[in-house]
């Protein structure tokens, strides 16, 4: 067997799925993920990090664990809503793969892009592959003008202040080498949505290589976004802190 295919056979992808009130979305995203990994013959596990969702997401996750098996669906819940950034850290501590995929559970990130992430990673031996809405065929569908301006604005201001050299700084659909993600998490101070931006900025500082794959981000159909005014304020604070300290 050639070295490359031996490596391929050993690679394992751990998907981190943070959930807060995603009862309607979880079965479909999990089904799509399982299908995608099975089609491409990749070894995988899905780690669901539910933060005590009042809508019963956890019970749905328990059903899925029964259906797909506890080696494929790992439930690593927390008692209450502690934020996205720390949900990833919590999930990663339980990951057994050598690659970690971070994505949203609300179907805004389609699992069909994962094989492209994997191909891209192998092509350039990248440390990180970042999905981008702001390059090539990438795009955003279903957002109102206000939300588009917030996202574009956050990207633009960060590009100007920090020049991180990636086109989508606030997106969260990414693949990381596990040890790279671990290092980045040690360095990152933010806890909320600003986490994604800080991760990619720190990645550049540490000299990690980043490949990009255009993705389409489709706004959720079920449930609602947890991004509120508080997150925008903490994004700005995080950005200024990074600007001042890096
Ligand atoms: N466990 C946990 N705890 N999960 C959470 C929390 C939390 O405190 N807050 C949100 N989530 C989960 C949601 O259930 C969903 O799976 C994912 O995190 C993203 O949350 P959304 O509320 O759907 O985010 P969004 O659509 O507004 O924001 C998306 O775009 C942002 C900007 O481009 C996400 O991709 C963000 O990560 C991204 O920064
Ligand atoms: Mn969403």
Automatic annotation (TrEMBL):
GO terms for cellular component: dolichol-phosphate-mannose synthase complex; endoplasmic reticulum membrane. Transmembrane segments: none annotated. It catalyses: a di-trans,poly-cis-dolichyl phosphate + GDP-alpha-D-mannose = a di-trans,poly-cis-dolichyl beta-D-mannosyl phosphate + GDP. Signal peptide: none annotated. It is found in: Endoplasmic reticulum. It is an enzyme of class 2 (transferase). GO terms for biological process: dolichol phosphate mannose biosynthetic process; dolichol-linked oligosaccharide biosynthetic process; GPI anchor biosynthetic process; protein O-linked glycosylation via mannose; response to oxygen levels. Pathway: Protein modification; protein glycosylation. Keywords: Endoplasmic reticulum, Glycosyltransferase, Magnesium, Manganese, Metal-binding, Transferase. InterPro entries: DPM1-like, Glyco_trans_2-like, Nucleotide-diphossugar_trans. Belongs to the glycosyltransferase 2 family. This is Dolichol-phosphate mannosyltransferase subunit 1.
């Amino acid at each position: 067997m050639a070295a490359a295919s031996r490596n391929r056979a050993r690679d394992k992808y751990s998907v981190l799925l943070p959930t807060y009130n995603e009862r309607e979305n979880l079965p479909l995203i999990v089904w799509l993920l399982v299908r995608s990994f099975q089609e491409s013959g990749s070894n995988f596990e899905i780690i669901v990090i539910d933060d005590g969702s009042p809508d019963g997401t956890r019970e749905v996750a328990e059903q899925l664990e029964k259906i797909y098996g506890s080696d494929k669906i790992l439930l690593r819940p927390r008692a209450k809503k502690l934020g996205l950034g720390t949900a990833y850290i919590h999930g990663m501590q339980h990951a057994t793969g050598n690659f970690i995929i971070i994505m949203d559970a609300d179907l805004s990130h389609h699992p069909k892009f994962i094989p492209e992430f994997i191909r891209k990673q192998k092509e350039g031996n990248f440390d990180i592959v970042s999905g981008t809405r702001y390059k090539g065929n990438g795009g955003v569908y279903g957002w109102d003008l206000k939300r588009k301006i917030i996202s574009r604005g956050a990207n633009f201001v960060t590009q100007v202040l920090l020049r991180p050299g990636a086109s989508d700084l606030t997106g969260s659909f990414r693949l990381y080498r596990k040890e790279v993600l671990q290092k980045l998490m040690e360095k990152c101070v933010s806890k909320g949505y600003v986490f994604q931006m800080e991760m990619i900025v720190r990645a550049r500082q540490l000299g990690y290589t980043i490949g990009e794959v255009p993705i389409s981000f489709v706004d959720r159909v079920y449930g609602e976004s947890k991004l509120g005014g508080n997150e925008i304020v903490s994004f700005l604070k995080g950005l200024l802190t990074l600007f001042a300290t890096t």
